[in-house]
Design a protein that fits this description.
Residues 1-44 are annotated as: Disordered. It is elongated, with a radius of gyration of 21 Å. The protein is α+β, with helices and mostly antiparallel strands. The protein has an eight-stranded mixed β-barrel. The protein is 17% helix and 28% strand. The model is unreliable at 1-42 (pLDDT under 50). It folds into two domains: 16-142, no CATH class; 149-183.
């Protein structure tokens, strides 16, 4: 069973499988708002919850990036000169929570990306994403890995049998690869 959610100033250990990193289902998301309040004073932007695959990218020193797309509920940035993930998403509260996203505590109706422009320079690192006067600080982390239930051998056998029957009933077209393609 996963441990308690970290406080806003405390980060879990790097390994998401040690149980310390909260999953989105364990009060770690931005909708919980615990310790992730927004602040617009002094040039600071909203707080965010960053997906664990972004940890190395966000914890590293600042590096240049470029805004490649802007939408009402999300912006996408390309990070230069790094291995995967090369694209980072910043999404508003309630938007699709991608595994490469920093999720804001601000809903899209508040237009958090109104001043961000496609093609603009950006900076990613030191725990932040910055572009066009917009700034978000990763205050907590979430694990995008889905939690799957175990599968009993009997259920697996039933699934295999159902697949075999479906393939047999589909005829020769199903055994040659993609539909309509041979071998």
């Amino acid at each position: 069973s996963p441990g308690p959610s970290p406080s806003p100033r405390q980060s879990p250990p790097p390994s998401p499988r040690q149980g310390a990193a909260p999953s989105p289902r364990q009060n770690a998301g931005p909708s919980s708002r615990q310790g992730a309040a927004t602040s617009v004073l002094g040039g600071h932007g909203p707080a965010g919850a960053a997906a664990l695959p972004l940890r190395r990218l966000l914890d590293a020193p600042k590096r240049p990036a470029r805004v490649i797309a802007v939408f009402p509920a999300a912006i996408y940035l390309e990070v230069r000169g790094v291995p995967e993930p090369r694209v980072l998403a910043v999404v508003a509260e309630g938007a699709v929570r991608l595994p490469n996203a920093v999720v804001l505590v601000v809903p899209a109706r508040e237009r958090p990306f109104a001043d961000v422009r496609e093609g603009a320079e950006a900076w990613i690192g030191e725990g932040r994403v910055e572009t066009c006067g917009f700034r978000v600080k990763a205050r907590r982390w979430w694990d995008p890995t889905p939690v799957l239930a175990g599968l009993s051998p009997a259920a697996l056998a039933r699934g295999i049998h159902a697949l075999e029957v479906a393939l047999r009933d589909a005829g020769p077209a199903a055994t040659g690869g993609l539909a309509g393609h041979r071998g």
